[in-house]
Task: structure prediction
Amino acid sequence: MTTTRKPSDTRKLGGAGKPRGVGKPRGVGKPHGVGKPHGVGKLGGRARKAVLLVHVLAAAAWLGIDLALGILVVVALSTEDVSTAGIAIQAVDVFAIWPMFGASVVCLVSGAVLGLGSKYGLVRYWWVAVKLVVNIGMSLLIAFALRPGVQEAARIGARMLAGDPAAVVPPGMVYPVVVAPTLLLVAYVLSVFKPWGRIRRSAEPVQRQRRDLVGAVQL
Result:
């Protein structure tokens, strides 16, 4: 007598079909850690907050020194008291230049660390690149343009206190105290609103490379 086995019986007897446990081996596939890089070159949470705090404080100190410089220059230009004008213009040379330059350098270094330790980089986004150019440009102006002018104004202030009637506060001192805070406020706005998006690189080198590869394959 012949018996017919059902398909279900076949699977039960002998394990016909796909053996149990045979399939995608465990641990085979995408290697652990392969894919989107995590934490490569990035600042950790506490480190980023510390650097960000230094950056914000340096920027605030820079703006505060600029505003104090502006007040002293306005007082020196507007007062009719020669002694007050001389003291005000000399005070600019005492505290403004090197503290301002130090704040600009700290702001530049901490900003570079924040950029390199995040997705923004230094030249990936327009707002970061513009801030970097502004920071470097203002630091150079402080060291090589503003400092000689302030030193000359301080010598004029000393002559004013000595009673020299020909000593007059240079009216050009008003320009730095207007331009510098304006540029700093622009940098603040860029940091908050992050406009303009990424800097798009030209696709021409990539297209040329693809053409070269196609030509090499055809050969």
